[in-house]
């Protein structure tokens, strides 16, 4: 008896691609404009994300939110992002798989040499398109932070920055806090 080749009917390539990356053993990956990218942050990169998470802690408790680097789906595209940090309401996070950018309150991306341009341009545009209310870009190469707010049809309509490291970043409502960037 010979083995019969198994035919896979791919009627929806987007679903097949997103399913496949969620089943890669041992690695975290994301898809940016159809390109699968492994996520291997350096300790310096993780340090910045952790400094932000620590500062957000009291506000997260007050708002009933969680912060993490869970999956964000962008339906209708070949994009599946894993942000460095996303803030979401606790009730939305509980039991959730991938979320949509508009279910977040804040998305933070910390650049690395390998992905800086993607975070600066591609992700900024996609997060605005998918209505993420706040996008904070921490650019380690440029040593600056830029806060994008109020997503519109053509991108974010309000931009604060780039602000050099050491300059506080004001996170608006519902956060109503200043983010200290002096240790970035």
TrEMBL record:
This is Uma2 family endonuclease. GO terms for molecular function: endonuclease activity. The keyword Nuclease applies. It holds the Pfam family Uma2. InterPro entries: Nuclease_put_TT1808, Restrct_endonuc-II-like, Uma2. It comes from Streptomyces sp. R41. Keywords: Endonuclease, Hydrolase, Nuclease. Residues 25-179 form the Putative restriction endonuclease domain.
């Amino acid at each position: 008896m010979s083995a019969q080749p198994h035919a896979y009917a791919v009627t929806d390539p987007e679903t097949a691609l997103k399913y496949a990356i969620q089943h890669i053993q041992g690695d975290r990956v994301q898809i940016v404009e159809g390109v699968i990218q492994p996520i291997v942050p350096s300790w310096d990169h993780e340090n910045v994300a952790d400094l932000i998470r620590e500062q957000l802690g009291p506000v997260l408790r007050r708002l009933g939110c969680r912060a993490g680097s869970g999956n964000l789906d962008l339906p209708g595209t070949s994009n599946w992002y894993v942000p460095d940090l996303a803030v979401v309401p606790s009730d939305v996070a509980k039991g959730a798989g991938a979320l949509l950018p508009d279910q977040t309150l804040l998305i933070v991306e910390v650049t690395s040499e390998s992905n800086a341009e993607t975070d600066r341009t591609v992700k900024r545009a996609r997060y605005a398109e998918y209505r993420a209310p706040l996008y904070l870009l921490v650019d380690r190469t440029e040593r600056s932070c830029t806060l994008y707010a109020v997503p519109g049809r053509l991108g974010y309509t309000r931009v604060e920055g780039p602000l050099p490291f050491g300059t506080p970043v004001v996170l608006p409502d519902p956060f109503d806090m200043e983010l200290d960037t002096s240790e970035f």
